[in-house]
């Protein structure tokens, strides 16, 4: 058994180091790329010893906060996706499957329609996401606590149907706001709906949250692996299923809510990244969760760099770029999985 574990651990370690190196390289590329060029050799000097030049101002006020926000947001989305796939035992689940995205979008657009500032937009998005969490907990409370079922398939449909219902109601509200919004507000609303990291604030909790969640989940790694067998077998093996399911849902919802509040609705990161890593390193959550955080941050950072450079000085919504990259990639992964089967 140890002989089988050692190559797997070594492969995971190599993948982690590779992701860290790729993330550092992508960060460097992001910092010197844009409509205002900064020489790559000047980036380290301006980063650690700013001289007050226009290049240093661009680096510290615009590019560095945006790049770090992209890394943290991508890590949160990938973590939320990996946790939702454990909770629902469905590799196609993503962070927004339970209606959180639609509720957050409704809250944010409502603040924009009222003409309130950016802080209120973020507060509205977080309030909408929080209401979605509370609603799913309340409507699905019987299934969340039911341990008699032998399979999560008995419990997942109620959660999924609850999320679909909430998402439909929220998107109806979003459509109503968009139809009534004046023309000068409509473009900003649509841009936020498609994902936008421009002008994002960078509070320290956003930077630390993904890695704190990984540390919090590490002691539960064995139980998360057992949960993939279903609540019945997991409970027989000593897993506190009801408590763990609530923990998974709360942490995944928190991660997705903070990501949506920061950057709007960005799809495919939480779906594609955990799914691709599962094919590379297996389904051990002790390895998959931190690898998902690193790969999610890398994926969104590269997508955001493309979004602001490919048509510079114009900027594309980063959600459009993740969809254009993520959809073909996911189709390719499904085809590879089908051939392997």
Give a short summary of the structure.
The chain is mostly helical. The chain has 15 helices and no strands.
Topology:
Layout: H1 2-32, H2 43-48, H3 54-88, H4 100-113, H5 118-139, H6 141-144, H7 156-180, H8 183-193, H9 204-217, H10 221-227, H11 231-236, H12 241-263, H13 269-281, H14 285-309, H15 318-340
Helix pairs in contact: 1-3, 1-14, 3-9, 3-12, 3-13, 3-14, 4-5, 4-7, 4-8, 4-12, 5-7, 5-12, 9-14, 13-14, 13-15, 14-15
Describe the structure.
The chain is mostly helical and 341 residues long. It has a single domain, classed as Orthogonal Bundle (ABC transporter involved in vitamin B12 uptake, BtuC). Helices cover 76% and strands 0% of the residues. It has 15 helices and no strands. α13 runs parallel beside α15. The longest helix is centred in the N-terminal third of the chain and has 35 residues, at 54-88. It starts with a helix and ends with a helix. The model is unreliable at 143-154 (pLDDT under 50).
């Amino acid at each position: 058994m140890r002989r089988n574990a050692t190559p797997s651990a070594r492969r995971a370690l190599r993948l982690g180091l590779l992701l860290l190196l790729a993330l550092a390289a992508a960060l460097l590329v992001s910092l010197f790329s844009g409509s205002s060029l900064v020489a790559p050799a000047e980036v380290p000097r301006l980063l650690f010893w700013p001289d007050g030049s226009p290049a240093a101002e661009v680096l510290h006020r615009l590019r560095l906060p945006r790049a770090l926000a992209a890394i943290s947001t991508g890590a949160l989305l990938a973590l939320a996706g990996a946790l939702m796939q454990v909770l629902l035992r469905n590799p196609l689940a993503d962070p927004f499957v339970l209606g959180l995205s639609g509720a957050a979008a409704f809250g944010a657009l409502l603040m924009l329609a009222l003409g309130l500032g950016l802080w209120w937009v973020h507060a509205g998005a977080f309030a909408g996401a929080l209401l979605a969490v509370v609603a799913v907990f309340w409507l699905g409370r019987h299934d969340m606590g039911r341990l008699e079922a032998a399979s999560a398939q008995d419990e997942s449909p109620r959660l999924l149907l609850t999320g679909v219902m909430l998402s439909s109601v929220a998107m109806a509200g979003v459509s109503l706001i968009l139809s009534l919004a004046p023309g000068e507000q409509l473009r900003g609303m649509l841009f936020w709906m498609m994902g936008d990291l421009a002008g994002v604030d960078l509070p320290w909790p956003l930077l630390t949250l993904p890695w704190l969640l990984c540390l919090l989940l590490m002691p539960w790694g064995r139980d998360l692996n057992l949960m993939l067998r279903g609540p019945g077998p997991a409970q027989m093996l000593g897993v506190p299923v009801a408590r763990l399911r609530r923990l998974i849902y709360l942490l995944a919802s928190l991660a997705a809510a903070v990501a949506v509040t920061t950057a709007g609705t960005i799809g495919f990161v939480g779906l594609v990244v955990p799914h691709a890593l599962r094919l590379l390193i297996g389904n051990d959550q002790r390895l998959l969760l931190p690898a998902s955080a690193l790969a999610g941050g890398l994926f969104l950072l590269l997508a955001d760099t493309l979004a602001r450079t490919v048509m510079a000085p114009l900027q594309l919504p980063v959600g459009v770029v993740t969809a254009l990259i993520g959809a073909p990639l996911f189709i390719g992964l499904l085809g590879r999985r089908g051939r392997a089967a």
